[in-house]
Design a protein that fits this description.
Layout (H helix, E strand, L loop, with lengths): L3 E8 L10 E8 L6 H11 L19 E4 L2 E4 L11 E5 L5 E4 L2 E3 H11 L21 H11 L6 H4 L2 H5 L6 H11 L8 H8 L13 H5 L6 H25 L4
Parallel strand pairs: 1-5
Antiparallel strand pairs: 1-2, 3-4, 3-5, 6-7
Helix pairs in contact: 3-6, 6-9, 7-9
């Protein structure tokens, strides 16, 4: 027997001066294998065409439909209503700029973050489009791929206590990105150069280790493992290269 589901959805359009933040309830009869993506599209097509939320791939690849589902960041397209209670509360992701209702602007945040961590291969080699691609050990390529599976949904940022309290914090996604380049043999940056990017309270030393990022990652990327490795590397860099400079007495 199907259930009647109640969806309590955050509504607010900051571009409309008459709009005020509030929760609005909608009811739907649950269908077999219904996802939140299907439910939201039914609500928009059958009850309120003004409801705003984001989606693209519908397969857990683009990350566009991320939202807070009963207090936990997740993807609407990958969340089945059968795994939720009769009453479901949907909120936009925190940290990111609100567009309207459940829609947030993650793109601007990610562009700024990638500029901060210089998210590209740093090399002095001149690119030759006719040359063969550099060979890489399969095991190393798999390690890089594991960290490259991030879909930039923003769930880990929304679940991070530090990111919510401090807008200058890079977040797990940025630190994972740095970890990806640190193991890439094509990137010629030194440990000191990496330290200058993430060896601060805005970077790895601002992480409180609450594990929220890994708990909500829809791609199950081993974020805490990478953050732990990065923290150790940056701590050693501070001891070996940075602290002696500060401890030197003036000549």
């Amino acid at each position: 027997m199907s259930r009647t589901l109640t969806f309590n959805i955050f509504r607010y359009n900051p571009q409309d001066p008459d709009s005020q933040p509030h929760m609005e309830a909608f009811t739907l009869e649950e269908t077999e294998a219904m996802s939140l993506f299907i439910a939201l599209n039914r609500i928009r097509s059958e009850q309120d065409p003004s409801l705003q939320f984001d989606f693209c791939c519908r397969a857990g690849i683009c990350g566009a439909c991320a939202m807070v589902i009963n207090g936990r960041p997740g993807l609407a397209c990958r969340t089945k209503t059968r795994d939720l209670p009769n009453e479901i509360t949907l909120l936009p992701l925190p940290v990111f700029k609100l567009v309207a209702d459940l829609s947030v602007d993650t793109g601007t945040w990610f562009r700024q973050m990638y500029q901060k961590v210089e998210s590209w291969i740093h090399t002095d080699k001149e690119f030759d489009p006719h040359a063969k691609e550099e060979r890489m050990d399969n095991h190393l390529a798999e390690e890089i791929y594991e960290l490259d599976r991030c879909i930039e949904c923003g769930c880990c940022v929304a679940a991070c206590g530090t990111a919510i309290m401090r807008p200058d914090f890079l977040g797990a996604v940025a630190l994972n990105r740095i970890a990806r380049f640190m193991i890439d043999p094509r990137d010629e940056r030194t440990t000191d150069e990496y330290f200058d990017v993430v060896g601060t309270d805005e970077g790895i030393f601002g992480c409180m280790g609450l594990l929220g990022c890994e708990d909500v990652c829809p791609k199950q990327i081993p974020l805490q493992e990478q953050l732990g490795k990065l923290r150790r590397k940056m701590a050693l860099a501070a001891i070996n290269n940075k602290l002696p400079k500060f401890l030197k007495s003036p000549s």
